[in-house]
Amino acid sequence: MRNVEANVAIEVVQLGREALSLRSIARQRGVSPATLVRRWGSVDQMFDAILIRMLAR
């Protein structure tokens, strides 16, 4: 049971970080977070694309 609770806590922290990242990216581009998600299709696809760009540098 503790492992499940720990895993859920880790997921919540990661989702919170992703949400903050999404807000900051949207702010930098001057659009709303919802607009970014619509353009990319999903949050996961957007973060995958951002990671690929960062790794390519």
TrEMBL record:
UniProt keyword annotation of DNA-binding present: yes
Gene Ontology terms, MF aspect: DNA binding
Pfam families for this protein: TetR_N (PF00440)
Keyword field: DNA-binding
Stored InterPro entries: Homeodomain-like_sf (IPR009057), HTH_TetR (IPR001647)
Start-end of DNA-binding region: 21-40
UniProt keyword annotation of DNA-binding present: yes
Residues annotated as domain HTH tetR-type: 1-57
Extent of the signal sequence: none
Protein name, UniProt field: TetR family transcriptional regulator
